[in-house]
Amino acid sequence: MSKILLLGGTGAMGVYLAPELIKMGYNVFITSRSAMKSDNNKLTYIQGNAHEDTFLKRTLSDNFDVIVDFMTYSTDEFLHRYNLLLKNTKHYVFLSSTRVFANSNQPVTEKSPRILEVSDDAEYLATDDYNLAKARQENILRESQYKNWTIVRPGLIYSKMRLPLGTLDADTIIFRAHCKCPVILPEVMFHKHNSMTGGGDVAKMFGGLVLNPKSFCEDFNVVSHKRSTWEEISQYYKKLIGLTVIPVKIDTYINITGCNYQILKARMNDRVFDNSKILKATGMKEESISSIYSGLEKELQNINDLLKTIRINYVLNAKIDRFTNSRIFFEKASIKEKLIYYSSYTGMYEYLKHIKRFIR
User: Fold this and answer.
1) Based on the number of CB atoms within 10 Å of its own CB, is 184 exposed (0-12), middle (13-18) or buried (19 or more)?
2) Residue with more model confidence, 103 or 128
3) Measuring CA to CA, which residue among 223, 340, 241 is closest to residue 282?
4) N or C: which end of the chain has fewer CB within 10 A?
5) Of residues 308, 325, 309, 318, the one with CA closest to residue 339
6) Are strands 183-186 and 218-222 parallel, antiparallel or unpaired?
7) In this structure, how many other beta carbons lie within 10 angstroms of the beta carbon of residue 283?
């Protein structure tokens, strides 16, 4: 049986891709920094940091037929290791992102212009921001001597571990809904469209590309054609978990969340996708892909179980609370976490961090 390695495959996509690949008959191995156990003889966890060369070389010596790479690299780091990855497998699947594409009034296809080529923002282009890094790493693969790679670009994915709203995610959204506290969203985004695709549907698209001759040396946007406005998505969360969303100025949102390029260069874009290429390569039909509402409804059925696994960002919650005049619950907060919250709420947290750096 073919062996597939998922590098960093314990996240929102990997949690669906692993069982999909096992169902297809593959033996799946997943790298994880944490110790994890499997009760399935076709699933093996390998504990270690896949960013470390020694661990990676030792892992790749086990001769995997396919490597699906979920890791996030700087461009320099990818330059350092892409040869190692490509020469040690029959099929290397590189996780990029639809965030590489520039804003457009047309449906986004694989041939749509990327930010890297069309932006005239010199300050931004001088960075290795996620959008730019992924585009540069795509170029590295195309310019390499190898012909065994595939580039996949998921869009916004929702799953048990990921529930996007602007740049906020599951931990914040689920926790604040539980506390009956509102979240914020830039008002200029409310009428912009975005496609959100369920992790299970994305996994089926991935599975259809693995060792598929049509996928070699090709790029695919693994997305749904279905789309909703952010206002509609806000209403979905309201109906499903009682979440209230308050519109704010874009500068206020950036100041509170600390997100800048992610909101300005990605989430602010009005997105609709043409996914005909991935559907043709995998034989999937658009009708088989869940709508955003029905998919979210399914993922949020067991919200009490999700609440047990969230990680609470007390700094972010304090900043949102201060702006919205609300207050989260502290049922599981330690004394340290309460201090972090209250110092952030009063604006002292950043000051204390600055003093700590100065003392050092």
Assistant:
1) buried
2) 128
3) 223
4) C
5) 318
6) unpaired
7) 8
* Residues 81/140, Cβ–Cβ less than 8 Å: no
Buried b (16+ CB within 10 A) or exposed e, 303-335: eeebeeebebbbbbbbbbbebbebebeeeeeee
pLDDT digits (tens, 9 = 90+) for 56-105: 999 999 999 999 999 999 999 999 999 999 999 999 999 999 999 998 88
Say how far apart CA 218 and CA 238 lie, in whole Å.
Answer: 39
Identity of the residue numbered 297: E
255 Cβ contact list (under 8 Å, min separation 6): none
Q: Which amino acid is at 127?
A: T
Domain ranges of the chain: 3-307
Selected residue with higher pLDDT from 1 and 18: 18
User: Residue 359: its pLDDT value, please?
Assistant: 42
- pLDDT tops 50 at residue 360: no
CA atoms of 94 and 209, how far apart (whole Å): 12
Q: Tell whether the model's pLDDT for residue 12 goes beyond 90.
A: no
Spell out the long-range contacts of 237-243 with Cβ–Cβ below 8 A and sequence spacing 24 or more: 237/163, 237/165, 237/173, 237/177, 237/296, 240/296, 240/297, 240/300, 241/173, 241/174, 241/177, 241/300, 241/303, 242/177, 242/180, 243/173, 243/176, 243/177, 243/182, 243/183
- Distance of alpha carbon 42 from alpha carbon 28, whole angstroms: 6
- Cβ atoms 160, 225 nearer than 8 A: no
- Does the domain at 3-307 match CATH 3.40.50.720? Answer given as yes
Pairing of strands 149-154, 196-198: unpaired
Task: Give the Cα separation of 293 and 326 in Å (integer).
Answer: 27
Can you spell out the DSSP letters for 278-301? HHHHHT--GGGSPPHHHHHHHHTT
The DSSP code for 113 is P
